[in-house]
Amino acid sequence: MADQAKRIRLDIPDGPEYDQVRDMHGHTVTVFESTEVDGRRSLKIGSRTLVLQRTGVDESGDEATEIFRAQSISEPSY
Questions:
Q1: pLDDT tier for residue 2 given thresholds of 50, 70 and 90
Q2: What is the pLDDT of residues 9-18, one digit of tens each?
Q3: Which string of DSSP letters, residue by residue, matches 3-72?
Q4: Cα separation of 51 and 42, whole Å?
Q5: Among 28, 39, 35, 42, which residue's Cα sits nearest to residue 72?
C-alpha cells in the first residue's frame, strides 16, 4: 500500500529557542500521513528536529489543512 502525502501548516511559537526556524511560521509543508502518531509528529528542518502537536484545521482554502504547533525543538545536530 502506498503511503499518502498530506499538507500541514506550521505554527511556530515565540521564544528564542525557535529563532532558527521562525521563518517557517505559517508555511504549509507536505508530509507522509504515516509519520503522525496520536496527533504528534517530528519534522526535521535543517539541523534541528521539531516535535509538533496537531492543534486544529484551517478550512478556509480549497481543501482543509491541519495545523501543527511546535512543542519542542532539538539542539542542532551536525
A1: low
A2: 999 999 999 9
A3: PPEEEEEEEPPSSGGGGGGGGGTT-EEEEEGGG-BTTEEEEEETTEEEEEEEEEEE-SSSS-EEEEEEEE
A4: 5
A5: 42
